[in-house]
Amino acid sequence: MSENLDMSNLPFLCVAQIIFELSDSSADLHSCLLVNRMWCKCAVAYLWRTPFYWNGHRAVKMVIEFLRLLPNDCLEDLEYVIGIHIPAQNMQPMFNYLSFVRTMNIMCCIEAVECFLADYFDIVNDTDIRLLSLRICRGMVKNCPLLMEIDMAGHDIGYYGYKWTARSWNLFNLKDSVTNINQLKQLRFSQEFPPDILYSAAEKLSNLELFEIAWSENCMYIDGIKWCDAISKLIGNQKSLKVAYLNLNFSFFGTNLKSICKALYTQAKTLIKVKILFAGTEISKLIDTFGQLAKLHYIKLVYCTLSPTCPLELPPDAFSNLRVLKINEIETNFYGIDALLGNVKECLETLCICYIEMNADYNAELWRKCAKNAPNLSYLKIQLDLEDYVQFIQMALPLWQNLRKLCIVINEPHNNKDSHELLSNILSLAGTNLPASVKFLKLDAYCKLPLAAFTTFLSTCSASLESFSLRVDDLNDSLVNTLLDYMGNSLQSVYLKGTGALSAETKAKLNTQIPRVDYFMKSVNSD
């Protein structure tokens, strides 16, 4: 904090901007409370934006203050049931603190309540934690007039023995609420709660811009039909949904997924981001739906299975606005992957392909088609089996002449001579075919990197790199010195991560030649 006395007289917007820059630090925000009323009001707005966000003793103080602000009817009988002292209601607070609240995060609330109750009991009763958290969150939804986001994900509310608490967490049918629940812009939900609660949300909410639902391994409410109906109803009822994150186990849904696809299609004019996790073979229906969403610019698929029996016929302008495509750990035949990679367009800027099974006979044609259709790609992350890298490097990599950032991830090769020769060949091809436009290169090798192969890569590299990141098993002086010998005069930053050790001499050489150096080393003998 500056000691300049004139700082306290800055216009309100300037003060707000300064405090925004300090908003990641609880200590800095609390320091701002002491400057004057203007600074205090700005800082309070951030401190109360997401109550209980700060951990430790600050969370305990927040719980106490929050309890003092809630009406008595929210807290009735708690002293008797839990056996704690409920502080007297604050009838004249300095600010209308509840009007600053924008986000209700269940996980933050539960963690803060646990700290609060720890001051009363040596062993905190889990039922008491859930009951007090429930009362606080219900009070927050009823009494915070400008609440914009409800986050119900990230914490196990509904495991065996606490089903009553899970069914009590319906925050969307509260009576006598000062909050217009339909003003919510973001809802993060979890399958730890029953689908009935999501039905209630669907009936009350129509202005969401972001909807996220997370799968839980502890889920007690596995009913594919009910979940599909609830999800599709909520999505379909929104006026301008922009982001949909569906983190689900679609194996429970089967053909019921069609209703979700139909609901997504109703959002064709506004939906811009979609993330799907854990989808089975029915994902092909979603891909077909994606092709109908005119404004879609972000797709992420993780742990899905793309295996349609015939090629998907997407409209000519499918993915015409797609800027980001991320595909991680996908099982597929070439029909499924072609529906995604084969239909990208010129506006694609980011492509991440990790752990996918591809048809070797089709690789060359697919990579060539992808590179030709998306010439303006600026960031690429690629992780393939060693056998698939050769065609990718030869057919696609040289065509991306606007590429700025490249991340190559190499899995551990089979422990035989042929695999190590193939690795050396891949690195040599990568160096030779690396576009000159690449300025940031990240090489993640989950194996011991042969010095000869690394040397070949650096010696053939045609790009004028500014930043180099190396993650490798057995990181040693020889690898680092080789990097410095070939690129030490041009690199502006280097990041090193691996198992092993660097000598003091090598570290000194690094710090002398490279303006910015970061490294994370793990000792060979460490646990």
Could you walk me through the main structural features you see in this protein, from its secondary elements to its overall organization?
The chain has 527 residues and is of the alpha/beta class. Among the domains are: 1-47; 49-147, no CATH class; 378-527, Leucine-rich repeat, LRR (right-handed beta-alpha superhelix) (Alpha-Beta Horseshoe), CATH 3.80.10. The chain is 39% helix and 18% strand. It has 20 helices and 16 strands. The chain has a 16-stranded parallel sheet that branches. Helix 14 (334-341) links the parallel strand 9 (324-332) and strand 10 (350-356). The protein is globular, with a radius of gyration of 27 Å.
**What form results from the Cα inertia axes?**
globular
Task: Say what oligomer this is.
Answer: single chain
Number of strands: 16
State the helical fraction: 25-40%
Total number of helical segments? 20
Beta-strand share of residues: 15-25%
Mean pLDDT: 79
The CATH topology annotation of the domain at 378-527 reads as: Leucine-rich repeat, LRR (right-handed beta-alpha superhelix)
CATH class of the domain at 378-527: Alpha Beta
Head-to-tail CA distance between termini: 41 Å
The CATH homologous superfamily of the domain at 378-527 is called: Ribonuclease Inhibitor
Label the structural class: alpha/beta
Largest sheet: 16 strands, parallel
Which ranges are low-confidence, i.e. pLDDT below 50, for 5 or more consecutive residues?
1-5
The value of Rg in angstroms is: 27 Å
CATH architecture of the domain at 378-527: Alpha-Beta Horseshoe
Organism: Paraglomus brasilianum
Protein name: 25_t:CDS:1
InterPro entries: LRR_dom_sf (IPR032675)
